[in-house]
Amino acid sequence: MVETIVSIGLAVDEKMIIKRNRLQPKSLNGNETRICIVTGLHGDELEGQYVCYELTKKINENIQFLNGIVDIYPALNPLGIDSVHRGMPTSDLDMNRIFPGSENGAMAEYVAAKIIEDIDGADMFIDLHSSNIFLRELPQVRVSEHISEKLVPYAKLLNADFIWVHPVATVLESTFTYNLNNKNIPTLLVEMGVGMKITKEYGDQLVKGIFNLMKAMNIWNGEVSPVREPIVSTEKEVEFINAKASGIFISCIDNLGVIKKGDIIGGILNPLTGEIEEKVICPCNGMIFTLREYPAVYEGSLIARVLGGVKWKKKYYLH
Length: 319
What we know:
- By secondary structure, the protein is α/β, with parallel strands linked by helices.
- It is built from 6 helices and 17 strands.
- The chain has helices at 47-61, 78-83, 107-119, 148-155, 176-182, 200-216, and strands at 2-9, 15-23, 34-38, 69-73, 124-130, 135-144, 162-166, 187-193, 231-234, 238-242, 247-251, 257-259, 264-270, 275-281, 286-292, 296-297, 302-308.
- Strands 1, 2, 3, 4, 5, 6, 7, 8, 9, 10, 12, 15 and 17 form a 13-stranded mixed β-sheet that branches. Strands 14-13-11-16 form a 4-stranded antiparallel β-sheet, with no helix packed on it.
- A hairpin with a 4-residue loop joins β13 and β14.
- α1 (47-61) packs across α6.
- The radius of gyration is 21 Å and the shape is globular.
- Residues 312-319 have low confidence and may be disordered.
């Protein structure tokens, strides 16, 4: 059942409309568990669009296995998606910095408040994000350490490659996930892929995980696929690799995954002189989960993030 949760008049008789698709059993008893799947908060992040499509399609094709309520919000920032703009174009605001919003505030604040109002009372919330156009990310769940004991068991069900536990000091209080967790709604932030693109295999991986989570919550009683055991990491285990020179970055690796200390990640080239300004070397053994996608770099630009301090029993390449 598709419903409009926010409708705001714009110039020239246009409207900004945010819709929700509610999937539920044919008969309700009033005690159904409810999960919300949300994406499109940033207009240049499209990986979640495919996930929403696949979830809706598979549930509708097997509706007899649905025990609970699944609310899908594919486009919380429809103007941003339409204009390929990260923020809300009318105000150039990052919507993920204005929660919980206010019904008496400006347009973006009003939208944020109405979204929170519609989601309130849910039993589980998944906030789907892509990376930006500069970086490619393996499917991962990010949680704050002060609520990790509560959230990590849920995150392990999502078929992600790893779970990144962040120090509480790095979590902004104006973000969507912070405000929902603050309302005691278990909220998982998923990051994967690249901005302005859709990585089908990542989407398929996450869809399997969401069905697995719904099965564990008794929202879904159909068959589910086995999921991988994610690595749980902390901020201290992550190595950040930044460019020491400016130029064009060319990667030497085909897949994100296992990497050894001393391996060459790529090179920063100088198109003017034909020289290699820097060979980017991995500083540790581990798993590379973030890699530069946009070639132009400057001194200090993030090239990669490597999850170190992991004992690898076998060669483990992902995707």
